[in-house]
Design goal:
InterPro entries: FAD-bd_oxidored_4_C, FAD-bd_PCMH, FAD-bd_PCMH-like_sf, FAD-bd_PCMH_sub2, FAD-linked_Oxase-like_C, Oxid_FAD_bind_N, Vanillyl_alc_oxidase_C-sub2
Cofactor: FAD
Protein name: D-lactate dehydrogenase (cytochrome)
Number of domains: 4
CATH class of the largest domain: Alpha Beta
Strand content: 15-25%
Helix content: 25-40%
Oligomer: single chain
Number of helices: 15
Region (Disordered): 1-32
CATH architecture of the largest domain: 2-Layer Sandwich
Shape: globular
Radius of gyration: 22 Å
Domain FAD-binding PCMH-type: 28-205
Distance between the termini: 30 Å
Length: 448
């Protein structure tokens, strides 16, 4: 490899190999044989050519913030760390487009866009790399208004398994020409190619932002309110549910005094008049569904404090269990099925005796369960896996999916046949056509 890259672009240092042996999931780490740090599309082409020549697996790596073992090199080989490909290549404010390399992080991009009055809206919480976000079809708290990465990637430059380079689409806002390759590659989790340039859609910064908190007696009341707010067409940018257990933990560990009830955290953005109208209508909808307490704030620092409990929920939950591992899982269901899915999750946690709690993007039917698991305790892991299995089976039974945003990776691979049926064979045919040797991130997503 050092024959085609500089010596400082290749590492077999034990500490570097360890850093790239895992993500933030509970899955067993596995070191790659080497880590390479490309700085251009041409570098990635050379890497793929070496991989093809010697039949060596390749695993793309962003910042390692994935939650389902996506970047664990289960068969060793080369980990391609894109952190040095971190340039913002072009900003087109009049087209609401920006071209970036995959190593640029979400926060870096938004800092660069601010002088243009623009921002990139997809917010998975972590300061993830945009390449990793595209690879996993990341979404997050703003999905209810702006969609996931598939809705915000205009085109990709991709290096394929044989070292050839393609651009997946034009820069036009719409096209009826050819297959939707961009949609195919976004969410492919590094199994079809390595991204080297990404054209993203960006939007204007809202003139006025208001945050709000609505406290309810039950989860069903909160979900009905959130569904009505979305259905009414309000300028709601975020609709997040935090369970009573999370609220209780946050109060105890962070010294807050929030009511210990299911709570919606909301954000509205747009022109001042439109936002004020949306906030008032949202308050009325919440009241109709039994809201016990409503709080709205405009000041940026006050909004930050308001949202702290949602943004830090998982980390705060895990503070109760020092030395435990964090198993994070998610499913997504049609909105009408969300109360039942959450009730099912509560039953599973109780019946299996697993330490866990829930937060959710209730505006789009996606919710997360955090599980505290003792490392090395086989019984604990089996109970946590039983909860995960029960969540997925219920979601699929009501027309949902095994993962709304975490992705498949290693953890949800076993549910692919159950969810997709014969369509999984089509996916494997595509994989085989683009990567006949199975070198790109093997053992993930749709692999048997």
């Amino acid at each position: 490899m050092k024959r085609v890259l500089r010596a400082d672009q290749v590492s077999q240092s034990p500490s570097v190999l360890d850093q790239h042996s895992h993500d933030e999931s509970y899955h067993t780490p596995r070191r790659p044989d080497a880590v390479v740090f490309p700085e251009s599309t041409e570098d990635v082409v050379h890497i793929m050519q070496v991989s093809a020549q010697f039949r060596v697996p390749v695993v793309p790596f962003g910042v390692g913030s994935a939650l389902e073992g996506h970047v664990v090199p289960v068969k060793g080989g080369i980990t391609v760390d894109t952190s040095r490909m971190n340039r913002i290549l072009e900003v087109r404010p009049d087209d609401f487009l920006v071209k970036v390399e995959p190593g640029v992080t979400r926060i870096e991009l938004n800092e660069a866009l601010r002088p243009y009055g623009l921002f990139f809206p997809v917010d998975p919480g972590a300061n993830a790399s945009l390449g990793g976000m595209a690879a996993t079809n990341a979404s997050g708290t703003t999905t209810v208004r702006y969609g996931a990465m598939k809705d915000n990637v205009r085109s990709l430059t991709v290096v394929l398994a044989d070292g050839s380079v393609i651009q997946t689409a034009s820069l036009a806002a719409k096209s009826s020409s050819g297959y939707n390759l961009t949609g195919l590659f976004v969410g492919s989790e590094g199994t079809l190619g390595v991204f080297t340039e990404i054209w993203l859609k960006v939007v204007g910064l809202p003139e006025h932002i208001v945050g709000a908190r609505a406290v309810f007696e039950t989860v069903s009341d909160a979900v009905r309110a959130s569904t009505a707010m979305v259905g009414t067409g309000l300028l709601v940018s975020r609709v997040e549910l935090v369970s009573a257990l999370y609220i209780d933990v946050f109060n105890r560990l962070e010294g807050t005094d929030f009511p210990v009830h299911p709570t919606l955290f909301l954000e509205f953005g747009g022109t001042r008049g439109a936002v004020e109208s949306s906030v008032e209508m949202a308050r009325e909808i919440a009241a109709d569904e039994g809201c016990q307490r409503w709080t709205a704030v405009e000041d940026a620092s006050e909004r930050t404090r308001l949202w702290k409990v949602r943004h830090e929920a998982a980390h705060t939950f895990m503070k109760q269990f020092p030395g435990y591992g964090h198993m994070a899982t998610d499913v997504c269901v049609p909105l009408s099925k969300l109360p039942g899915a959450i009730a099912n999750a509560e039953r599973l946690l109780e019946s299996e005796g697993v330490r866990g709690s829930m937060i959710g993007h209730v505006g789009d039917g996606n919710f997360h369960v955090s599980l505290a698991v003792r490392p090395g305790d086989k019984g604990d892991l089996e109970r946590a896996n039983a909860v995960n299995k029960g969540l997925v089976e219920y979601a699929l039974s009501v027309g949902g999916t095994c993962t709304g945003e975490h992705g498949v990776g290693l953890g949800k691979r076993k549910y692919q046949a159950l969810e997709h049926g014969n369509a999984l064979n089509v996916m494997r045919t595509i994989k085989s056509a683009l990567d006949p040797d199975g070198r790109l991130n093997p053992g993930k997503l749709i692999d048997a």
